[in-house]
Specification:
heterodimer; A: alpha+beta; Heat Shock Protein 90; 3 domains; 9 helices; B: 221 residues; alpha/beta; Rossmann fold; Arc Repressor Mutant, subunit A; 2 domains; five-stranded parallel sheet; four-stranded antiparallel sheet; 8 helices; phosphorelay response regulator activity (chain B); two-component regulatory system (chain B); transcription cis-regulatory region binding (chain B); phosphoprotein (chain B)
Chain lengths: 463, 221
C-alpha cells in the first residue's frame, strides 16, 4: 500500500509522467474515435453500394418481366448475373403476386434458379406501389440476407400487383467491412505506436534542458561552477539568467562589503600611522598615552575589520577555489618578504584539482596568516601539507620554532593575543583563521610539531 | 642613498621624509601615482617606499609600469588594507616587501635597509672594506673601530660606494644617488666631497679612474 501510494505521489509530482500520461490517454481516445468513425463510414458506404446493386438487379428484373400470350408471367431473358443461376449462391430474386388487401396472393410466382426450391419470406409490411423497402431476413442456408422489395403494376395489367424481391447475403457487406476493419485496426495501431513513440521522444527531448539545468545547479551547489553555464531554450533561459543574476549579486555584495572594510581600514589606519609616528618621536607623558592608545585602537580596528570581512564571507553557493595557485602565490610572497630569515619552505605534493569550497580571498586570508605565522617563528624550515580527508581538506602547517605552550594555544585562538611583542603583526592572525574556518564549517587545531615548533591543522570543506 | 617616498597623506609623507633623512637618505616625495611613475622612470633611486592607495594612478599600476620598463630598484609597499589579497598582488606586481599601516618607523627603516643591502647583493647589515666598516642599521662608518664624523652628503657618497666595492662609479651616477630631486646639483661638488672623504679615510681607498669616475679599492683580506 505504501509503495503504491508512493508511486501515486511520484506520478502526481512528476511533470514528465503527467504529460506523458495525459498525451497517451488523448492519443488512445483520438485513435479509437477515428477508428469507430472511419469504420461506420465505410460500413455505410458499402451498404449503400450494396443497396444500389440490389436496386440494379431489381430494375433489370422489372425490365425483363413480360406476360406471354397465356397471360403467364415470365422472363424475357435470364438475368445477367451468373450468381442468380447458381443454386444457393447467395444472390436471389423472387416475384410474388399481391392480393387486393396488400397481402401476398401467390408467393414465388417466379424465382431465381439460385433459390432452388426455397422461398424468400418477406416480413409483413404495407408497401405502397413503387415504394422500395429494405429487410433483413434469413436465406435458404439460414444465412442473413439483405433484401429489397418493390411492388409494381405492369402497364398491360394494371390490376395486377407484382412484388419484386432481390436479396443477397449480408456476407457481401460484412466481409469487406471486416477486411477494412482489420486493415484500419492495423493502420491505426501502427499510427498510435508511432505517436506514442514520438511523444516519449519529445518529452525526453523537451526534458533534456531541464536535466542540464539540474546538473548545472548541482555543479553550482558543489562549488564546481560559479554560475549555471550554457545556453538554454528561451523558456528556461530567463530562469537561468535570473538565478545567475542572484549568484552574481551575492558575490558582488561580498566584494562590496570587503571593499568597504578595506576603505575603512585605509581611512583609519593612515591617521593612526601619522599619530603613532608623531608620538614616537616625543617623550612626553601625552606622547606615551598616544602611543599606547593608538596601539589599542589599532588592535580594535584590526579585530573588527577582520570580523567584518569574515562576516561578509557568507556561504555563497558555487564558490570554488583551487588550493595550488593560492598556495603558490603565498609561498612567493613568503619567500620574497622573509628572504632574510633563510627559512626553507616545503609544500608536500597534492593533486592539482584539490579545491576549497569557498571564496578565494578567504582562503588567502587563512593560508596567508598560517604561513606568515610559521615563517615568523620557524628557525629554519616550514612544512606544508595538503590532504583530502572524507569530504574535507586538511592543510597542515608546521614550523621548527620554539612552539607554543598548550595553555597559550587556546588563548591565541580565542582572542588573538600577541605572544611576542618583538615580532611584527597584530597578533590576530590565528584568531582570524579560526573565525573564517568556523564560518565555512571547518576548524583549526594547534598542537606540537615533531620538529619542535607549532603545528596548525586547518580543516576546510572540499569542493 | 636616494629614496623615493610615494604617499598622498601629507603628514605621513613628511614624517617619512624626516625619518629617512635622519637615517642618512636623500629623499624625494611624490603625492600621486602619475608623478611617482615619472620620477621612478627618469631618476635613479636606491629604493622606493610606495603607498598603494594613490590618487591619479594607483600604486600597483605604477609598480607594474616600472617593472615592465626594466626599473629594478627595491620597492617597499605600504598598505592600509591588511588582506593577503593585496599583499599577493603587490608582490606579484614586483614589490620586494610590504608593511601594513600603521607601522613603526624603526621597522620601516630596517626593512628598507635590508632591501637596499639585498639589492646590492650583501647579506650582512655591516659592509666591510678593509679597515672601513659601514653599519647600515646605525648609519655609521668606522675605521678600525673609530667612528668617522661625516656630513650627510659624505655619508651617502661613501655608502653608495660601499654597496658597490670594486666597481667604477661615474660622477653623474653619484650625483643621481646623493641628491634629492629639488637639490641644486653640481657634479663639481662631487669632487669636493670625494676630496673631503679621502682626508677622513685611509689613503688610496677611493681610487680615481680617469675619465670614468671613482672606485672603492678594498685591500684583500
Amino acid at each position: 500500500m505504501k509503495a503504491v501510494a508512493g508511486r501515486m505521489k511520484r506520478w502526481r509530482n512528476s511533470l514528465r509522467l503527467r504529460l506523458l500520461a495525459g498525451t497517451l490517454v488523448w492519443i488512445v481516445v483520438a485513435v479509437l474515435a477515428a477508428g469507430w468513425g472511419l469504420s461506420s463510414l465505410f460500413n455505410k458506404h458499402v451498404s449503400r453500394q450494396f443497396d444500389a446493386e440490389l436496386g440494379t438487379h431489381l430494375d433489370q428484373l422489372a425490365a425483363n418481366l413480360v406476360f406471354d400470350e397465356a397471360q403467364t408471367l415470365r422472363l424475357r431473358a435470364p438475368l445477367s448475373d451468373p450468381r442468380l443461376a447458381r443454386p444457393l449462391s447467395g444472390l436471389y430474386w423472387q416475384v410474388d403476386r399481391m392480393g387486393a388487401a396488400g397481402e401476398p396472393e401467390t408467393v414465388a410466382l417466379l424465382r431465381s434458379r439460385s433459390l432452388w426450391d426455397a422461398v424468400l419470406a418477406v416480413p409483413p409490411d404495407a408497401l405502397a406501389d413503387g415504394e422500395m423497402h429494405v429487410h433483413h431476413v434469413r436465406g435458404p442456408n439460414d444465412e442473413p440476407l439483405r433484401m429489397i422489395e418493390q411492388v409494381l403494376r405492369p402497364a398491360e395489367y394494371p390490376d395486377q400487383a407484382l412484388r419484386l424481391i432481390v436479396a443477397a447475403t449480408e456476407d457481401l457487406i460484412s466481409e469487406p467491412v471486416a477486411r477494412f476493419n482489420d486493415l484500419l485496426g492495423f493502420a491505426l495501431g501502427a499510427l498510435s505506436l508511432g505517436l506514442i513513440g514520438a511523444v516519449v521522444v519529445q518529452v525526453r527531448t523537451a526534458w533534456m534542458p531541464l536535466e542540464r539545468l539540474r546538473e548545472g545547479l548541482a555543479q553550482v551547489h558543489d562549488g564546481r561552477n560559479a554560475a549555471i553555464e550554457g545556453r538554454f531554450p528561451s523558456e528556461i533561459q530567463p530562469l537561468v539568467d535570473e538565478f545567475n543574476g542572484v549568484l552574481a549579486r551575492n558575490a558582488e555584495i561580498v566584494v562590496r562589503a570587503r571593499t568597504q572594510a578595506g576603505n575603512l581600514a585605509h581611512a583609519i589606519k593612515t591617521p593612526l600611522a601619522v599619530l603613532a609616528n608623531a608620538a614616537n618621536r616625543d617623550d612626553s607623558a601625552l606622547a606615551r598615552v598616544v602611543v599606547e592608545q593608538v596601539a589599542l585602537a589599532q588592535l580594535q580596528v584590526d579585530h573588527h575589520l577582520a570580523r567584518a570581512r569574515a562576516a561578509a564571507a557568507v556561504q555563497i553557493p558555487g564558490q570554488r577555489t583551487a588550493i595550488r595557485p593560492v598556495m603558490e602565490a603565498l609561498v612567493r610572497v613568503m619567500e620574497r618578504v622573509h628572504v632574510e630569515r633563510g627559512v626553507q619552505i616545503t609544500v608536500g605534493d597534492f593533486p592539482e584539482t584539490t579545491a576549497f569550497r569557498g571564496e578565494t580571498q578567504d582562503l588567502q586570508e587563512m593560508l596567508g596568516n598560517l604561513l606568515d605565522n610559521a615563517y615568523k617563528w620557524a628557525s629554519s624550515r616550514v612544512d606544508v601539507k595538503v590532504a583530502a580527508r572524507n569530504g574535507d581538506l586538511v592543510v597542515t602547517v608546521e614550523d621548527d620554532g620554539r612552539g607554543l605552550d598548550a595553555s597559550v594555544r587556546e588563548i591565541v585562538l580565542e582572542r588573538g593575543v600577541r605572544t611576542d611583542e618583538q615580532r611584527p603583526g597584530s597578533g590576530l592572525g590565528l584568531a582570524i583563521v579560526r573565525d573564517l574556518a568556523l564560518l565555512y564549517g571547518g576548524d583549526i587545531a594547534l598542537d606540537a610539531s615533531p620538529r619542535g615548533g607549532l603545528r596548525a591543522s586547518l580543516r576546510l570543506p572540499r569542493a | 642613498m636616494r629614496v623615493l617616498v610615494v604617499e598622498d597623506e601629507p603628514t605621513l609623507a613628511e614624517q617619512l621624509r624626516e625619518a629617512l633623512a635622519a637615517a642618512g637618505y636623500a629623499v624625494d616625495l611624490a603625492d600621486n601615482g602619475r608623478d611617482a611613475h615619472f620620477a621612478g622612470d627618469v631618476e635613479s633611486y636606491d629604493a622606493v617606499v610606495l603607498d598603494l592607495g594613490l590618487p591619479k594612478m594607483d600604486g600597483l599600476t605604477v609598480l607594474k609600469h616600472w617593472r615592465t620598463a626594466g626599473r629594478t630598484m627595491p620597492v617597499l609597499i605600504l598598505t592600509a588594507r591588511d588582506g593577503w589579497h593585496e599583499k599577493v598582488a603587490g608582490i606579484d606586481a614586483g614589490a620586494d616587501d610590504y608593511l601594513t599601516k600603521p607601522f613603526h618607523m624603526e621597522e620601516l627603516l630596517a626593512r628598507l635597509r635590508a632591501l637596499i643591502r639585498r639589492a646590492a647583493g650583501h647579506a650582512s647589515a655591516e659592509l666591510v672594506c678593509g679597515p672601513l666598516v659601514l653599519d647600515t642599521r646605525r648609519s655609521r662608518a668606522t675605521v678600525d673601530g673609530r667612528a668617522l664624523a661625516l656630513t650627510s652628503h659624505e655619508f651617502r657618497l661613501l655608502a653608495y660606494l660601499m654597496h658597490r666595492p670594486g666597481q667604477v662609479v661615474s660622477r653623474s651616477e653619484l650625483v643621481e644617488h646623493i641628491y634629492a630631486q629639488d637639490f641644486d646639483r653640481d657634479s663639481n661638488t662631487i669632487e669636493v666631497f670625494v676630496a673631503r672623504l679621502r682626508k677622513k679615510l685611509p689613503p688610496e681607498l677611493i681610487e680615481t679612474v680617469r675619465g670614468l669616475g671613482y672606485r672603492l679599492a678594498c685591500p684583500a683580506g
